[in-house]
Amino acid sequence: MERLQGVSQARLISSGYGLWMVWSGSFNNAVGHTLRDHGLVQLVEDPCQSLWLSFTPEVFRAMAKLQIWARLNPLPLFCQVFPVTALVGYDMSLSASVPREIARQQAGVAEDLEVLLHPKLAEAVRGIHGLSLGQAVSMQGLANLGWTPLVADQGLDYSSPTNWYGVIRPLGRLGEREAIAGWRAFFSEVQGVFQRLNIKYLADDAKGFVIFPLESYRQVRQYCVELATLLAELKATQRAYWPCVFAVTEQRGMSFSMDLPHRMGLDWNRLTPDFLHMRYRDGFSLYDAFKVNEVNYGGEQESLDSWCNVTRRQADGQGGQGAIEMPLPRRWLAGAGKECFYCGLKNHTSAQCPSRTMPAFRAQNWVALGRANLSDMALGFKALDEAGDSDKFLGKIGSLLSAQSMEADLVRAVFSIGTPYQPGLLPVLPRVKAREWPLDPEQLNPEEPWPLAEAHFALLSGELDKSKELLRAVCAKSGRSFEAACLEGFVSLEADDHHMAQFYWQEAGRLAETNIQQCYVLFLQARLREVVGEYREALGLYRQVLMGSPKWLEPTYREGVCMVKMGFTGQSLDIFADLVNREPMFFNRILVDLETDRGRVHVLAGLWEPWLEAQVKAKNIGIKVTSLLKELPQWFEEDHAFRKPAQAHLERMDALANTENYVAFREVVRGMDGFTVEMQKQIDEEIKRIKERVGTYAQRLREVQYEAGWFPFPKLLRDFNRDFNHCVQRINWIMTQSLRTADNFRTARRHVPEIEDHLQSLSKRLVSLRIVRDSTLFAMLMGKNFVWIEVVGLALALLTIPVLLYYSTKIASNWVIDGILAQKWAFQKGLIFLVTLFALGLASLLSVLTFEKKKRHLFEADADRRAGQRKATAKPSAKQQAGRAEGKPKDAGEAASKQGGAQSKNAKQKGDGSKSAKPAPKPGAKRSGGK
Prior knowledge:
The chain is of the alpha+beta class. It has 32 helices and 15 strands. Strands 1, 2, 3, 4, 5, 6, 7 and 8 form an 8-stranded mixed sheet that branches. It has a 7-stranded mixed sheet with strand order 10-11-9-12-13-15-14. The longest helix has 67 residues.
């Protein structure tokens, strides 16, 4: 009992019979075949015991048959039959509930077959002729309830009296040549199954039914297995396949005649093709070999007599085709009325449909549904299934259309499927600028007064007579128009006059002036043919719409839905697969479309492969997104322009990757398609910018070094040297490290502003250095001029004064000469002072006039010498050539060292006393490379 599958919430509960068997050694397969031939289902099996379930008293006939067989063949087997409660979960899992005192029993293996029955089963046994009960017995380990042994009459036949009828109905119009040929080829294959199973059948070619009796559980099982195998083979090879619907039902007194299909209580136009339909009771008797599927056939209450369909289980180790689990609200599909033109449901009329008042454009509804998990959608549909009768349904749906919940999103999506043929789109048509469908709400003309607005509002309000009067008034005033004919068609439609609706829409087609209008009325007519069941005519009209607007996907989708309604689900799968590939939104649309109920199992199975493929891709990309979310902060700082939008994008992709929705999966794949390339592009561009900026900084550093190299007092440049060496170290690190790793990349980005700050500091200090340098150079130039002018002046004075004194002695009474001779030492001092003063003034004047020219000449000469030295250097090494080929700037420290050494050598070669010789700096040294 502990190994039974748990059912937390049961959808079906029924009384039944449990069979507990205990044996030793290997299990006799003949016993299992006998039990299955009487409709028993094995729930649990251990090496020496098993638990079986029966929905009918056939378990007693099976036990009687084993007793008769055991009289001739030794059968050490202990069997105990007791009442149980059968439980069917919402996932169609089968389990059972057993009283606690029975579940705690223990029993040994009997020497021969021993069958004990619960005392509550006495009445059921007495109802079977030939069976009786013995005296109550008690055994150690069993519940003390008064178990009685089963006694079977040896002379009776205990075969099952239950019989069934099987029905096959081909799809399509059997009057058409293609349908006749396809059905005949397929039925010839089915006849082979009938011959192998010795089944007699009766066929009616006019009505398209084949009926045949099935005489036992074994024959029902064999027929289902043979037919499922045949269908799988024919569909795989595309040989002689034709879609048909199949049903099996108990005879229950029904006669074997051609009116049998009409007495079975089935709507044959709603059965899923290629599936075996039967009652739940019969379907679960095949539980070990077939999977039981729900049929949304309507009805208020399900029971074991409700209809289901079964599909063949895959063998152990054989990978089967999966299917998406999305059960629709079963009670929504109930109803015996006509299909609603706007939504396809049968539990209300077109005039009552909640979708009539919805806006024209509803893309946001599908966007919201694309963000939901499939499990949440399934739970939402389950909650919506609580709406029962039409009044409750319409009231609840009306409140949900404006609510915010998963159920509300599902409701809006379901009623958005029919947007193109709902009246909310009609007022938009006069504003359309495009020539073809689909319409873009952003490309409409500005809204203007619409003459039919009041009539349209009256239609939406349900006032059909008032809408007609307003329409006639507008037409009498301004003439018949395309919109008026369309609106009058909607009025006739909601008045349940489909013939007049088609007439007005045909008139609108004659009044149509644009391709948009022509396609619109053709679409309305096609939908009208669809809801009345004329699918062939609807397909033709949809294809005409597609010819006029080839980019519009709606006609193609309606073609697929019509194929499903006709039962040709295989053809619809190709259409749906193409639509899903072109527009992922159609995946969710197919999931929630209530009109695909007939072939829903096929359709969901067909969607499994694209779903699984998209899920695997999204999972792999999700792992990559998680990795990128961790890497992004390592590459880019918070202030980087790329980080914030990239972070938001990755977080959105991560949320979508963890959303179990096909639209989300496809959006993740599309959203991350170019993100990695864009991120790498940003990194490459950033590295390029870093290299360019660092190259510029290196050049600026060389200029600073060159300027500082002329400073005459190097010992005063301690702070300057520290900043300079810091820049050299950072530039060398950036140029020598690989920036393709996140740590180096971020470190380089941090170093760049540091280098710039230190360069700015160096530039500010360089202003002071230039002032001192130019002042020193000016003083030296002026001193040089002063010295030679002073020397020349003194020399001239020494030569001129004696000559003047010599000639002045010949002049009598020359008081000037006498004064000079009398004060000759004072005169000499004054003369020297005057000459010095004159030399100083003239030197200053000459220095001012020639300073810039000489300074420029001095620096240009040094630059020419440095250029000559670079040209005379040896051929670069292979490593240097490779570095230059990659466009890497020369190492700033190396360049600074060479330039500093050249400047020191130049200062030595000048020998004019304007520079002091300075040693060449080394990269990373404490002194600046610019000295």
